[in-house]
Amino acid sequence: MSPRPLGPADLPERIARVYFRLLVPLVAAAVLWIISALTGSVHPLVALFSGTLAMFALLHLLRPGWSEGLRLAFAVSVLVFVAVLGLEPQRLGVRAPYHELIVHLLLLLIPLNVLIWHLLFSDRPRRARALVLALTAAGTLAATRWEDVATTHLTTSALLLAVSLVTHFFAGAVVILQRRMREEERLARQDALTGLGNRLAFTELCAQWPQTVPSGVLAVLDIDHFKVVNDRWGHEAGDRVLQGVATVLREVLGGSVPLFRWGGEEFVVCLPGRSAHEAARLLEGVRAGIAGHTFGEGQQVTLSVGLCAYGLQQGLAHAFSQADAALRQAKDSGRDRLVMAPAA
């Protein structure tokens, strides 16, 4: 199977990976080397900051799925260092001719971190805004303290403030766009009426087999005589029945089971990691639950179910055709029953 294309939902994590595995170690080494070269010694504050950056880079390498607490701890560490840099620049002992170099580093790194932090905290937009505005303020203060006022007339710190604010608004717009695209991708794979996955979502699941889908059982379910419901009570009643069947499927099988509305009154259930006996027992519970349920204005329906096991020799797509054939057999045998396809 070819690699899955990069989607909007992957953007923050991909950028975070480059940031923590390349940029953060590079900044840690550069800060340690430059400040040490300019002062002639390793300042404890610089060593602490560089060591902290290296630690977070290592943590991200070992555990890429960062918790919110670790992300926040990293951001606070950077903020504290930039704030200290702005409040006490003389403590580093950097000679005046090199102050401009520190300002240029701030001009480069602050806007870059503003952009990255928006993506790093894309799931917490309010926190991202608070952090990047605090970073912008701290960086501007630090640049003001370090630059030569008589020479530059504060132009560098003003430029830093302007660039950081522009980056802040640009990154915020990117995150909003990314979130909307992610929601559109989710809706494109969701049946609008029942909230279950649609045919596209099932097709993508089949494409991911066997890498991400362990062996199990696939079932195709069909509502018996559904046309009668539409003809007798109307299409709104039919929609309520479809929604009710989807609700029963979730309640009986749980929210973690892949559920799909294939189309019309037909549903598909994937039960990874289940044996044929376990799957039959679960789906018999679904069938009995539907048969005993009253929908809307007194409508009652039944389900016919076809099942087929899948594994390394028989994939999901083949299992679907076999389960569909077993469903037709259940229909021909009188409906309201479950039929297991013969083993391959």
Automatic annotation (TrEMBL):
It comes from Deinococcus terrestris. One of its GO terms (molecular function) is diguanylate cyclase activity. Residues 214-343 form the GGDEF domain. This is GGDEF domain-containing protein. The keyword Transmembrane helix applies. The keyword Transmembrane helix applies. One of its GO terms (biological process) is cell adhesion involved in single-species biofilm formation. Keywords: Membrane, Transmembrane, Transmembrane helix. InterPro entries: Diguanylate_Cyclase (IPR050469), GGDEF_dom (IPR000160), Nucleotide_cyclase (IPR029787), Rev_trsase/Diguanyl_cyclase (IPR043128). The chain crosses the membrane at residues 20-39, 45-62, 69-89, 101-121, 128-146, 158-177. It comes from the Bacteria. GO terms for cellular component: plasma membrane. Pfam families: GGDEF.
